Amino acid sequence: MLRRAFLSGLFYRRGLPAVDNNTAVRRFYRRMERAVVRCVPWESKLTISFTLDGSHKHMLRDQTEELGKVLARISNSIIKARGKGKKAKANKAGEAAADVSEEPVVRLYFNGDFVSEDSLNSDAWQDGAVLQVGETKYKIDRNPPTFTTAELPASLLAGFPVCPKLEVEFGDLKDCTFTWYRESSPNAHAPGQDGCWVEAGSERVFTPSNLDIGLRVKLKCTPGNESRYGVAKELVSSGTVEAGPGVCTFDNRHMYTKKVTDASTVRVVSYNILADIYAQTELSKTVLYPYCAPYALELDYRQSLVKKELSGYNADIICLQEVDKGAFSDSLSPALDAFGMDGVFRIKEKQHEGLATFYRRSKFKLISQHDIMLSEALMKDAVHSMLLEKVSSNPTLKEKVVQRSTTLQVTVLQSVSDPSKTVCVGNTHLYWHPKGGNVRLIQMAVALKHLKQVSEEHPGTLLFCGDFNSTPSSGLFQLLSQGSLPEDHSDWASNGPEELVQMELLSPFRLTSACGEPAYTNYVGGFHGCLDYIFMELEALQVEQVIPLPSHQEVTTYQALPSVSHPSDHIALVCDLKWK
Questions:
Q1: What is 423-461 written as a DSSP string?
Q2: Which of 167, 490, 522, 563 is the most exposed place for a label (fewest CB within 10 A)?
Q3: How confident is the model over 246-269, as pLDDT tens digits?
Q4: 397-443 tens-digit pLDDT
Q5: Each residue of 448-498: pLDDT tens digit?
Q6: Cis previous bond, 562, omega within 30
Q7: Catalytic status, residue 467
Q8: Is the pLDDT reported for residue 557 higher than 70?
Q9: Pair 424, 412: CB distance under 8 Å
Q10: For strand 136-142 and strand 33-38, is the pairing parallel, antiparallel, or unpaired?
Q11: Which residues, at least 6 apart from 309, have a Cβ–Cβ distance to it below 8 Å?
Q12: Domains of the chain
């Protein structure tokens, strides 16, 4: 009522014709511009953003500054701008510049009253206040929902989901609105032309069809929260939609994973997605993957395939290895967030890639994280003192182990529907060298000790996923699946006598490979074998379904992996585990 009375008073004072209050208010707000103020208590500055005479003003001011100084700054900037304009016109006409020193009216109102100019900025710029600058009035919008990041991916493929990267402040993505458009015809879009766009979708994720090939797409997204909306952003794709690869190796697998599982089941994925820093080396292009088309090794292309593959599994827990730091933040997180999943990332020391664990937020909540670098834990954690003593007996081996940046990501999740159910998720990528079986055994011994510590702190069931770089015939697989490894196992001498140490290893867990022992999970030109596993404890979970791996024909359609139809040199393991 106060605001409405104030507006009626304004119209009266300005000598406008008498109209009823509601009509006056509607007309007033229709003509009123918008000024956005961002002011949060944990920062010393606030920002004031508005458009004046076609120029965008963005002012950064101290929250403790008096309002009068800001208003004076706005007034002075107008006088200077007008002076420059008059001077330019006068010079052009050969005349003397006119005097433009008259100060414009710059005032701030709230609830019908002038706001005192000795008020602090933090108090003065309230939501709903009105800033008058000359004849223009601005409604103050304080801390409205705002996109701090809004980007479309560079690569758009027909049949593959387009997931924008979006971060919102003072709002929630679930409260935002989305409208997708496609060009009416190729190259129809030109700056300032809106008639060339045809509405194509209204969800957060858009999947272009073959009919969209050669067209750009546009997204109009409006940030929101439970009570209001902010300023919309329009994003136009930098390129056009390109043709997809046709049938992919994972298409048939998606037939088994069309729906999200119910509360009684947990769908788990483990997948080495091939880091870009490895895919783009000269060695990869000429020696490791010479059969793969160069464009199919590009990160944007492979990420399009990865996002479609992962979204189609409708998983509850996803463990990824070889995740580029940028791919996690710019591609995977935005995409999987749109499909209902949150994720955590652990980068390897001195590397640009690492491990990522995602979980479905409707089924799990994050309790804690307990990530370690295995070599650092071996050297510093007293729980590994006996193991360190054994390893130190061979300085050559110790040096090799200590140099490795191998990491163990440990994420503790709690069931949303039944808080008594807790899952400790281990995710790792062990040392890669074919003769490094001895190093991997030491790494695994450290990992198991650490997982035991975490499981004692957070009782529940263990899922241990990853690329273990070990075949089912290895000592490491024997240790995990049988619970022990004798001191005379041949893997202790995997790299010759100069790196030999011998010790018995015991596992504190009774684990089984949920997906069994596939013929291979890694298939490249010079090697194929089973290196990836989802290990589980049988006390709390049982295997309900193992999603079949692609057929050998699908894997070898383009000779080996990666290929135009498969984004990695590894194959994802997918299984459904049922709570007992």
A1: EEEEEEE----TT-HHHHHHHHHHHHHHHHHHHHHS-SE
A2: 490
A3: 999 999 999 999 999 999 999 999
A4: 999 999 999 999 999 999 999 999 999 999 999 999 999 999 999 99
A5: 999 999 999 999 999 999 999 999 999 999 999 999 999 999 999 999 999
A6: yes
A7: yes
A8: yes
A9: yes
A10: parallel
A11: 248, 250, 567, 572
A12: 25-80+103-142 (3.10.20), 146-236 (2.60.40.2700), 249-579 (3.60.10.10)
Q: Given the residues 141, 467, 491, 532, select the one marked as catalytic.
A: 467
Q: How far is CA 578 from CA 264, 417, 539, 572, in A?
A: 6, 14, 11, 20
129-133 CB contacts, 8 Å cutoff, 24+ apart: 130/32, 131/35, 131/50, 131/106, 131/107, 132/105, 132/106, 132/107, 132/108, 133/50, 133/52, 133/74, 133/78, 133/104, 133/105, 133/106
The b-or-e profile of 481-502 (16+ CB within 10 A means b, else e) is beeebeeebebbbbbeeebebe
Q: Which helix (H) or strand (E) holds 401?
A: helix 395-403
pLDDT digits (tens, 9 = 90+) for 494-546: 999 999 999 999 999 999 999 999 999 999 998 999 999 999 999 999 999 99
Closest CA to 316 of 257, 373, 369: 257
pLDDT of residue 176: 97
